[in-house]
Amino acid sequence: MQAALVTRLDGPVAVEVADVDAPEAGGRVLIDVAAAGVTYPDVLLTRGEYQMKPTPPFVPGSEVAGTVRSAPEGSGFAAGDRVAALCGIGGFAEVAAAGADSVFPLPDDVSFAEGAALPVNHLTAELALGRRGRVQAGETVLVHGAAGGVGAAAVQVAKVLGARVLAVTSTEEKAALARRLGADETLPVDGFKDAARELTDGRGVDVVVDPVGGDRFTDSLRSLAREGRLLVLGFVGGEIPTVKVNRLLLANTSVVGVAWGELVMATPGLLQEQWARLLPHLEAGALRPAVGATHPLADAGAALARLDERRALGNVVLTVP
């Protein structure tokens, strides 16, 4: 089969498409891949900077959508089923393998490109806003990076939870996307704290979703209302910020870590529980990933570079012939 290979740990430029052996089932669900989502961890894998460090050559790609080729008895899946799946690694290929607990039914009106962009970002957002952030209907949620993969997912998940959403973006084009996804207000990066305070009549926001980190972290803390929660999802801005804990004490606020992958591995059944909560909203059309760019499998390196250089608007997806 054709697959995109990381041949050396030099970033997206080191990705080549080649013929490799198709995976064996080994008790897993085999999927004929129609589309594969491109995520920031995939970029880190190409440089050996992710916590999982496979030895080159290897096939990156953690999320796919397509049709089941074969499935073990009792898995709940059968050949021909439309599915999305988390495969951990190996998704940038014509065939991928995933454990049955990481395979999810895909509604007929969700395209494969949309399905491939769903698992990592939307399940991360669901965990962040639901289990970790405990967002309640009527609360106000501020989302950084609201036109990126996890940020865009957070906008949509916050809306289905009944929250008011303030989306922070760096350009008007990204702001327009955030509004299409359901954001109630959009704010520029510069001055977002004061704008958020003004929009909440000085009270502040209940929750901040921050996959960016860097120099906006302190102002995010200052944006919180009493008993507000700042959800830390990552540091795509590069710098890992620090917090003076007296700030938390003074306003009874919290900084909450959201390591979705770690919790999923430690909690059997969590993925299926999350998908079950999202599925009604997928079927109703309330959750749809913003697929901003599609690349053929042969251009996997370019797709990864688009994300690495922060040129992505919405999700980046590989299509597999």
From TrEMBL:
Molecular function in Gene Ontology: oxidoreductase activity; zinc ion binding
PROSITE patterns recorded: QOR_ZETA_CRYSTAL
Residue span, Enoyl reductase (ER) domain: 7-318
InterPro entries, A to Z: ADH-like_C, ADH-like_N, ER, GroES-like_sf, NAD(P)-bd_dom_sf, Quin_OxRdtase/zeta-crystal_CS, Zn-ADH-like_protein
Top-level taxon of origin: Bacteria
Annotated CDD domains: QOR1
Pfam families documented for this protein: ADH_N, ADH_zinc_N
Gene3D superfamilies membership: Medium-chain alcohol dehydrogenases, catalytic domain, NAD(P)-binding Rossmann-like Domain
Name of protein: NADPH:quinone oxidoreductase family protein
Source species: Iamia majanohamensis
